Amino acid sequence: MEIKLINIGFGNIVAANRIVAIVSPDSAPIKRIILESREKGMLIDATYGRRTRAVVIVDSGHVVLSAVQPETVAHRLAAKESQQGEVVE
Q1: How many CA atoms lie within 13 A of 66 on its CB side?
Q2: Which H or E run includes 8?
Q3: Which pLDDT band holds residue 7 (cuts at 50, 70, 90)?
Q4: Which sign, positive or negative, has the C-alpha torsion 33, 40, 44, 5?
Q5: Phi-psi sector, 32: left (phi>0), alpha (psi -120 to 50), beta
Q6: How far apart are CA 29 and CA 85, in angstroms?
Q7: What is the end-to-end Cα distance of the chain in Å, rounded?
Q8: pLDDT tens across 19-67, in order?
Q9: Is beta strand 54-58 parallel, antiparallel or unpaired with respect to 19-23?
C-alpha cells in the first residue's frame, strides 16, 4: 500500500488516505470539534500563527488546522488522485 501525502500549507504534509473531512472553521459545530480536540491533546496547529482557513479531520481522531483554503486542499487531493491513475512507463 502506497502512502499518498498532501501539502496543507507551509511545507506541512498529511497522509491523504487518512483524511476523513476537509471543512471550513466558521460553523459552531466545527469550532466545538476544535475546542474538544485541543482539550484532548489531539489538535495539530499547522497554521504558523496565521488565520485558520481549513480544518482537516483525520481517521485517528486528530484535527489539523491549516492556513490554506479547504478548496485548495481538496484540489491538491484530487490532483494527487488523478496523477495516481496515470500509467508511468
Answers
A1: 28
A2: strand 5-9
A3: very high
A4: negative
A5: alpha
A6: 35
A7: 20
A8: 999 999 999 999 999 999 999 999 999 999 999 999 999 999 999 999 9
A9: antiparallel
